[in-house]
TrEMBL record:
Gene3D superfamilies attached to this UniProt entry: LURP1-related (2.40.160.200)
Any Pfam family hit: LOR
Lineage: Bacteria, Bacillati, Actinomycetota, Actinomycetes, Kitasatosporales
Family per similarity comment: Belongs to the LOR family.
Protein name: LURP-one-related/scramblase family protein
């Protein structure tokens, strides 16, 4: 499954659609402005909230939290003791860990579980400026979760660059 993300509007308070490879709107990322912390909602085409994404308020390192129906689904933070600046760890609620590594700010990175590729985020396939693709490799993977992970990692990397 391949999704297309128009990147130019990415920021708190900005809303943007994520389309499938046929150009159909699939998800809306709704950036919530006027909040004390960075907050996004991933919605379906009917406006139903599928995933809540927010920055954890009191954490030693910048951390984004992903929730579904009020339940914690994952926490994302830059990997400690990593020689690579662009390496993030996703800790799922069940303790499972996903690794995200690559050129985050260039939108060229991968999401893996135990060395197995789950998704590739890349601008290589796109001819449209300010756009990147999220290619979900495994059929049994949760596309909404992987898109939320990509949104979080990009947001954390951009905040780190600003900071």
């Amino acid at each position: 499954m391949r999704f297309l993300v128009r990147d130019r509007l990415l920021g708190i308070g900005d809303d943007y659609w994520i389309e499938d490879d046929q150009g159909n709107k699939v998800f809306l990322v709704d950036g919530k402005a006027l909040r004390l912390r960075d907050t996004f909602e991933l919605k379906d085409v009917r406006g139903r909230v599928l995933i809540d994404i927010r920055k954890k308020m009191f954490a030693l390192r910048d951390t984004m939290v992903i929730e579904r129906d009020g339940e914690a689904l994952a926490a994302i933070r830059r990997k400690r003791l990593s020689l690579l600046r662009n390496h993030y760890r996703v800790t799922l609620a069940d303790g499972t860990e996903l690794d995200v590594s690559g050129k985050i700010l260039d939108r060229e990175f991968a999401v893996e579980y135990d060395g197995e590729l789950l998704a590739v985020i890349s601008r290589r396939w796109r001819h449209i400026r300010e756009t990147y693709g999220v290619d979900v490799v495994r059929d049994d993977a949760d596309p909404a979760l992987l898109i939320a992970v990509a949104v979080c990692v990009i947001h954390l990397a951009e905040k780190e660059r600003e900071g």
